What we know:
Blueprint: H1 2-14, H2 19-28, H3 33-54, H4 63-85, H5 89-108, H6 110-117, H7 128-147, H8 152-162, H9 168-192, H10 198-218, H11 224-248
Helix pairs in contact: 1-2, 1-3, 1-10, 2-3, 3-9, 3-10, 4-7, 4-9, 5-11, 6-8, 7-8, 7-9, 8-9
Amino acid sequence: MFCAAFSAGAINSIAGGGTLITFPVLIWLGLDPKVANGTSTVALWPGLFGGLFGYRRELANSSTILFRLGLTSVIGGAFGAWLLIWTPSPLFAELVPFLILFATILFMAHGEINKRLRLASIDESPTGLWWFGAIVFQFFSAMYGGYFGAGNGILMLAALGLLGLNELNRANGIKNFLGICINSVAVVSFALAGLVVWQDALVMACGALIGGYFGASMAVRVGQKWVRRGIVVIGLVIFVVMVWRLRYR
């Protein structure tokens, strides 16, 4: 669990998608799908702080976007967490493989998404309509993040592409901040709903915190394309295995 969380924390800091590692590990250990999702969310939450600290120098002059999209993320994350709490476990188990496939496809299409959705730069005094589009996009991204979260980093990077954020390290720093906003609400909601195995979450939280800082500090030196390719492979393998388990259980 510690190693999985360390890897997930580092991957979340660099690109996003660490849930694709921790969630299946918790399922393999016998947790209910909803409990596994809640435990994974709590476990990976500290790693976002580690990543944010690692990118702290990249966040200069980002107060406007942090405030507007941060508030949007809190509201969207709360709505997504509420949806998960009220989703029956059998239904969620059926949805999980396809949520993972959806997240994996987002990884594969990341570059193209940013190319198509980037409209202008945040430094070019964007209009109110432009901000409205970015906020709506981030709301649905946050809602998905509060509900499941795997691949949500790519959704947020796509939303940041709307704001013309071409610097990957700055975008990742902002993405980590928005992830904290989303998961803070989800962590409280899942804890109150009893969807967290705390002894597992605490062990994994330590790994995620260390991994998050490590990933941020290594981001410039690590080849982004190799990290993303690895996540795509993991996501596709997990999708096939989980569909097979659902079919033949």
